[in-house]
Amino acid sequence: MILTRLATAWALFQGLLIEALPFLLIGVLISAGARWFAPGGRWLRRLPSHPLLGPLTGAALGFALPACECGNVPVARRMLSGGAPLGAGLGFLFAAPVLNPIVIASTWAAFPDQPWLLLARPLGAVLVAVALALLLGLVPEPLLLQADLLAERRLHQPLAAVGLLERSSGLVGAPPASALSTEAAPVRPPLAELMKHASQEFLYLALLLVMGSVIAALVQSFVPRSWLLAVGGAPTLSILALMLLALVVSVCSSVDAFLALSFAAQVTPGALLAFLLLGPVIDLKLVSLLGLLFRPRGLVLTTAGAALMVLLIGQWVNLWRL
To answer: Hey, CA dihedral for 205, 208, 214, 217, is it positive or negative?
Structure first.
């Protein structure tokens, strides 16, 4: 029995890894490409910092990136380290895994006879992303972001917002206007250095992905899906069960619609949408990758905030569709 479950876990682990690695590579390449074509990332600092416009603008950038949630992490990290407003970076991180063209196309292919879902999924993803950006924006950045990311981010923020001591660089005592006017022009890194950095980043992220996939595969093997789908008919319990299922199965947003299709007839509409909304934001496989961005407080707030928003959206859909 144990050997059978371990064999199942091995098969699930391979599936998760094969599914996610190409998108992780795409994300790292896009991150390296942004560093090459726009050294210094000045355009990132021009994104809106308004509490609502920032997350909406970041979410809109997701239409241009055909990657799942794993591939979005290195790109979001590059945005934040480059000095992008926090709301814009978080809006991209949480909404882009659903708004990208591949996910929209796969959702349409899996549910061509349910047009409400084609509208509700992107709209729900934007609502969740805006809510999480507003929630996490209440936390001071030193308590929210990892120390190395915060240090890189401060180097690209204006002196009017971050002091020299906080940057750990520059001349103490120089007037801010003078410092700004003498800011060095960004230098494009040598291609060899860029590729070396991208390779190291990919290997590090891949190691975290392997760890997350092992945990997700083991949990999924010892917690059969049938236990969670058994409560599929109850309005609230079905939503909670499918949210838990999304956390456990850790399937990429580019293919999760086809998995949802296999049990769509057994669950409520709100539960179906909850499964498609929560997984792209947080799951077992993704926790280690998000740990590159957030301190534990940020991870807890992200998980709790996303779960609450998805539960409310699922309940509203059940009231509408049942």
So the answer is: negative
173 Rama class: left (phi>0) / alpha (psi -120 to 50) / beta: left
- 171/158 Cα distance (integer angstroms): 14
Q: Which residues contact 281 (CB under 8 A, 6 or more apart)?
A: 69, 94, 97, 128, 132, 302, 306, 310
Nearest Cα neighbor of 284 from 229, 228, 208 is 208
Question: Whats the size of the chain, residue-wise?
Answer: 322
For the ranges 100-109, 118-127, 228-237, 261-270, the one whose mean pLDDT is highest? 118-127
Work out the number of other CB atoms within 10 angstroms of the CB of residue 256: 26
Q: What is the pLDDT of residue 180?
A: 46
Q: Quick one: tokens of 207?
A: 């190691």
Contacts with 101 (C-beta within 8 Å, 6 or more apart), sequence order: 63, 66
pLDDT in tens, 80-133: 988 899 999 999 999 988 998 878 888 888 888 889 999 999 999 999 999 999
Supply the Cα-derived Rg of the chain in whole angstroms.
Answer: 21
Q: Which of 67, 127, 125 is nearest to 101 (CA)?
A: 67
